[in-house]
Design a protein that fits this description.
The chain is an alpha/beta fold and 328 residues long. The chain folds into two domains: 130 residues, NAD(P)-binding Rossmann-like Domain (Rossmann fold), CATH 3.40.50; 183 residues, Rossmann fold, CATH 3.40.50.720. The chain is built from 13 helices and twelve strands. The strands form two sheets. It has a seven-stranded parallel beta sheet. α11 links the parallel β10 and β11. 40% of the residues are buried. Belongs to the D-isomer specific 2-hydroxyacid dehydrogenase family. This is Glyoxylate reductase. One of its GO terms (cellular component) is cytosol.
């Protein structure tokens, strides 16, 4: 008798090739209209699924996981970040959690570099001007920005993505500075020609562009607090493609309004999908809808990781991308 396939509930639309393979391998329930699950739908899903495949839009907190059925043994997250999942509760209930590391590194670094370039060079402002029909032609003093060659880039979080950004930024002539929980191996530091700062405060006061690449955890919530943002110089720019909660967004908005910062480029927001309406009014801010890793290749690679994690787990082995609370 053939072994019964596990019920896999997928909360959002995934690439066609991934969904097709899931349908072949598992008893799979897809979200064909790609709506974001409500809390009630999440509770219903964990109550009956053997495997749940959530994304960053699904908040699996203690209240939701407390209503999981005994058959739920794996949460195979479609994405690298797991701050939307209560890992401690999952572990207490015997639920394994996996993610999709490594495959988003280059895509996110590409987008970060694009954002680092876009604000000082006023790319979005120029594009909006063209579309408005108000451009009257070239002028020697029109739309002047700032060069990034020779500027200091401060990287907060020097993991895979932070290092990938550093390699790109070096190609644009930027000096690399970084703050990390642990200092890099000397060989990597030498390769990147990177300057390590044990004190985040000291690094902030000396850099021209700050880019955030650390995960959102209780320890990093508002890591860039109002106090720390005040340490930045008036000509500095803030870039964030990590998690919105790492920056005190209200403090950032106030400083931008008062001219205490030169600009910002944000792909993530503290209360997304809600965006502070004051940000929408600012010309010196580039705003993107959480698309730092949004490439076709990246999404397919993420899906392949999810498939491997589920299949490995179902076959009775430890999945390769297991996430533990003490390792986040």
């Amino acid at each position: 008798m053939a072994k019964q396939k596990p019920l896999v509930v997928v909360t959002r639309r995934l690439p066609d090739a991934i969904e097709t393979r899931m349908m072949e391998l598992f008893d799979c329930r897809l979200n064909m209209d790609d709506h974001a699950f409500t809390r009630e739908e999440l509770i219903a899903a964990v109550a009956e699924a053997d495997v749940l495949v959530p994304t960053v839009t699904d908040r699996l907190d203690k209240g939701v996981l407390a209503q999981a059925g005994p058959q739920l043994r794996l949460i195979a997250n479609f994405g690298n970040g797991v701050d939307h999942i209560d890992l401690n509760t999952a572990q207490q209930r015997g639920i394994t959690v996996t993610n999709t590391p490594d495959v988003l590194t280059e895509d996110t670094a590409d987008m970060t570099m694009a954002m680092i370039l876009s604000v000082p060079r006023r790319v979005s402002e120029g594009e909006r001007l063209i579309r408005s029909g108000k451009w009257e032609g070239w002028s020697p003093t029109h739309m002047l920005g700032h060069r990034i060659w020779g500027k200091r880039l401060g990287i907060i979080g020097m993991g895979r993505i932070g290092q990938a950004v550093a390699r790109r930024a070096r190609g644009f002539g930027m000096a690399i500075h970084y703050h990390n929980r642990q200092r890099l191996h000397p060989e990597i530091e030498q390769e990147l020609e990177a300057t390590y700062w044990e004190s985040l405060d000291q690094m902030l006061a000396r850099t021209d562009v700050i880019t955030v690449h650390c995960p959102h955890t209780p320890a990093t919530y508002h890591l860039l607090s109002a106090r720390r943002l005040k340490l930045l110089r008036e000509h500095a720019y803030v870039v964030n493609t990590a998690r919105g909660e790492v920056i005190d967004e209200s403090a950032l908005v106030r400083m931008l309004q008062q001219g205490e910062l030169a600009g910002a480029a944000l792909d993530v927001f503290e209360h997304e999908p809600s965006v502070n309406p004051k940000l929408l009014e600012m010309d010196n801010v580039v705003l993107l809808p959480h698309m730092g890793s949004a490439t076709i290749e990246g999404r397919v690679d993420m899906g392949e990781k999810v498939l491997v994690n589920i299949k490995t787990f179902v076959d009775g082995h430890k999945p390769p991308d297991r996430v533990l609370p003490n390792l986040v």
